[in-house]
């Protein structure tokens, strides 16, 4: 099983996690810029964090043969802190860099006017840099947050096929499926989606336009939930090819739209799994 985790926060994880992921087939991942738990008080903290996402963390991943990419944005929660707003001014510098394969995580946390403004500004940046967008949906009030998210995406003019709406569940999946956006699912150890619930959704909605991630971070989470979902799919009668589509080809297709996905072997520089640098691939 080859796995591309399209949403995982490796900054918060250990080398044991990297080793276990590599042993279970994780060959590539995307680390979205997000909230670190401790509120940041100045733009400098973001700059250092973004630099780590394009420098230090890819180096750490490469020690385990894993290709690391990231997404860059001002996250929804800190969009509400006036001390963090200045970050919007440094984003263009990062969105131009190799290894940055989308704008994200953007979207809503508490659905405030400040979040509206920052979300819209970052959708504009996605258009300007022709990048896909990773949209977080709120954990509270998820249904209303998802509806509003899709409205804002529609108004922005960013094409639906360039947007993944993440952290979906049984309640919110239908609306996103109908919108033409990609459907993201975060599989957690004991809250939100689990592998068996994911399998039920895949039966109902199919394997197209679906991204499954572990969203592992500093909270209780498990970087092997992608692998567990692949096992659950096989146990439920999905084929190896179905699993490969969901856990590898779909994330490659989605983030490949950036033209910046580098899937050459992290250790040798050779191509692996039939993919090299997908530069200019925008299917
Ligand atoms: Zn996240």
TrEMBL record:
The keyword Protein biosynthesis does not apply. GO terms for molecular function: hydrolase activity, acting on ester bonds; metal ion binding. Coiled coil: none annotated. It holds the Pfam family TatD_DNase. Signal peptide: none annotated. Keywords: Hydrolase, Metal-binding. InterPro entries: Metal_Hydrolase (IPR032466), TatD-like (IPR001130), UCP005295 (IPR012022). Gene3D superfamilies: Metal-dependent hydrolases (3.20.20.140). Belongs to the metallo-dependent hydrolases superfamily. This is Putative metal-dependent TIM-barrel fold hydrolase. It comes from Kribbella italica.
